Amino acid sequence: MGVRVQAEDFDLGAELAALRAGRTDIGALVSFTGLVRDANAGAGGITGLELEHYPAMTRKALEAIEAEAGARWPLRASLIIHRYGKLGPGDQIMMVATASESRGAAFAAAEFLMDYLKSRAPFWKKETRPDGAAWVEARAEDEAALAAWDERR
User: Fold this and answer.
1) Cα–Cα distance, 6 to 83 (Å, whole number)
2) SS3 state at 5
3) Rounded to whole angstroms, how far apart are CA atoms 2 and 56?
């Protein structure tokens, strides 16, 4: 189990290989990689994204949600990597990997972690566009996705 918050990029293949190295108790390994997306390419879209955070608070929050995922599902291993700093369209911003005996637990735990990271992880995001920059507000659908996990308890 692990959490990393870092400015540098990561190698998805290497991270997944390290997570399962020497393990024969894993029947499913699920991963998700989030990328900086230019939702309005060609029409004044995003030219950059800057993420800020308070290191101690961020690490504590991510470790807590990873522990919650481990309490809800029988995970053998998990990993959260989230980047901060200045990123451009197409850059990797985060990854989640979960490993379990079965695919159901691995998929559910990965989705739970992704929903948390999208809506509640303590990062502040500023989008830069050709006409200026603005802080990103939370989206109602992201909050709803996370709230649905409380109903599944």
Assistant:
1) 5
2) strand
3) 15
CB hemisphere CA count around 119 (13 angstroms): 18
* Domain map (residue ranges) of the chain: 2-151
Span 2-151: which CATH code? 3.90.1170.40
What is the signed CA dihedral for 40, 41, 43, 44, rounded to 10 degrees?
90
Is 114 in contact with 77 (CB distance < 8 Å)?
no
Show the tokens assigned to 132: 């200026």
Strands (E), the chain: 2-6, 28-35, 48-53, 75-83, 85-87, 92-100, 123-129, 132-135
How is residue 9 annotated by DSSP?
-
Q: Are 63 and 113 in contact (CB under 8 A)?
A: no
Task: Give 111's pLDDT tier (boundaries 50, 70, 90).
Answer: very high
**Mean pLDDT for all residues in the chain:** 91
